[in-house]
Structures are given as structure tokens and as C-alpha cells.
Amino acid sequence: MHCVTLSRAAIPNALTESLRSIRRNAIPTARRRLQVRHRACSRLIASCMTRQTVYVAIELAKGEMLLNWLLRKKRCTELEAAVIMNGIVQGVHYLHSLRIVHRDLKLENLMFAEWDNIDGVKIIDFGFSKRVDEGTLLQTVCGSPQYVAPEILTLSKSKSYTHAVDCWSIGVIMYMLLSGYAPFGETS
Question: What is the CATH number of domain 66-179?
Fold first, then answer.
């Protein structure tokens, strides 16, 4: 329970980066996350950094991860896909209006706000997100293999990519919702 707002919060415990990397990115990520206030995006409630650990408290999503939901259903109907995709697209549109590129949209980074309520999808895990200001170049190879855009994979030192990489990931998510499997094999 967050003592200032009296709202329930989730405190993720899966920190996989090195502490140096987390500390370097923690403050800009926290500032970026504090800006985000949209029903389709998980909200940062508080963050705290000690010498050894970075703690973040995010809005609690009571539902299940979209990946688990899809694995249980095998595939969803067109109507279910439309409702879910509407939430995702609205959230990504909002992020892009703030000049934030998520860069890791995938079924594992989408959760339902409430159990079995497909109308309340939330975008989570902003670890790879980046604010793109005037002159900022996106040149980091990041994302998850099944969802990453081709321009990230074929990146050279003289090139960069744009927020459109999130749109590619959205297309992959929609394909997976409707078909029940990934559009590309592991070796593609």
C-alpha cells in the first residue's frame, strides 16, 4: 500500500541488468515514467534508489499477463482482438505523443487491469523505453526477438530508427492474438 496515495502497488523484483546500468538509467526512466498517465499504461507510483538496489512501485494490475491469457485460450476472436488492440494502440499513441518509444512491446509486457476484463489492457515494463527529443537518435539494438522490427536488426553505425518500431511490434501482437502463434520462426 502506497502511504501517500493509499493505492495498491506492485513492486517488481526481477532486475536483470547490472546495478551500474540500472543506476545510470534509473533516474531518466523514473522521470519518463512519472509523465505517463494513461489508462492503457501502468503508472509509476514511486521510486527509490539505495546504494545497492533500485525499487519501483507501479500501479497494481490485478489481471493476468496477456501471454498467459492467450496460451489458455489458444487464440482469440476478432472482436476480442479488436478490443485488446484498441487499448494497446491508444496507449502507444499516447506514449508517442509524449515522444516516448517503448521498444519492447510484447505479450509478456501487456497485462489486464482486472481479471478476465479484456477492455483494460495495460502496457508494462518500460525498461527499454526512451524519450526521443529533437536530435535524439535511436541506435540501441534492443527488444525481444519475436517482436523486434527489422530496422533494429539491420542497424548499422550510421543509421537509426524511429517510433515506428513500436508499430511493427503491435502488428506482431495482433497476428499472435488472431492466429495463436508467432509470425516468424526462431530461425527467421
Answer: 1.10.510.10
CB within 8 A of 119, min separation 6: which ones?
Answer: 83, 87
Distance of CA 181 to the CA centre of its chain: 20
> pLDDT tens digits for 1-57?
444 444 565 656 444 344 445 455 555 666 666 678 899 998 888 777 777 777 777
CB 125 within 8 A of CB 67: no
Contact present, 130 and 101 (Cβ < 8 Å)? yes
Domain boundaries, the chain: 9-59, 66-179
User: Is 104 known to be catalytic?
Assistant: yes
Q: Give yes or no for a contact between 142 and 152, defined as CB atoms under 8 angstroms apart.
A: yes
Of 104, 116, 125, 166, the active-site residue reads: 104
Give the three-state DSSP class for 29.
helix
